[in-house]
Amino acid sequence: MDEHIARFFNDLFARASGPMHIRLVLQPLMAIIFATRAGVRDARLGQPPYFWTIFHDRDHRRELLRAGWKDVGKVFILATVLDVVYQLIAVRWVYPLESLVMAILLAFLPYLLCRGAITRLVQLVGALAQRSGRRGAV
Fold it and tell me: Which domain holds residue 55?
């Protein structure tokens, strides 16, 4: 079992310098772009931050997860497919769990972390702009 865990982590860290390593930048960037679009939309609609709401609003959790999947699903699938291609090139074998972990790290995690942060940032900037607009008008 220890050798499987060691291989798993060695393979994960080897991706940073292996073939197709540019995807380690491009895929999170795409997830962040989708998260930014969704976060701005959430702020304009007055919705609470995404990540927080998923854990604290049981009534809307399913629809929030569906909306999130709709935004980031293509990036997740692309991350999975590209990791399978990487594995075929680099190790000549496919380890599905590694592909899923990489897709989660490259697509879901950046999306989850950024969407709520963008929502809060846009709401803060909007509140500051509204305050400064009121002071200037008075």
Answer: 2-137
**Cα–Cα dist 69/61, whole Å:** 12
Give the C-alpha separation, 85 to 82, whole Å: 5
pLDDT tens, residue by residue, 63-76: 989 988 998 898 89
Instruction: Measure CA of the first residue to CA of the last residue in the chain; give whole Å.
Output: 70
Task: In whole angstroms, give the CA distance from residue 46 to residue 35.
Answer: 16
* 109-137 helix and 61-90 helix, angle to the nearest 10 degrees: 130
Q: How many domains are there within the chain?
A: 1
Closest CA to 99 of 2, 17, 8: 8
pTM of the full structure: 0.80
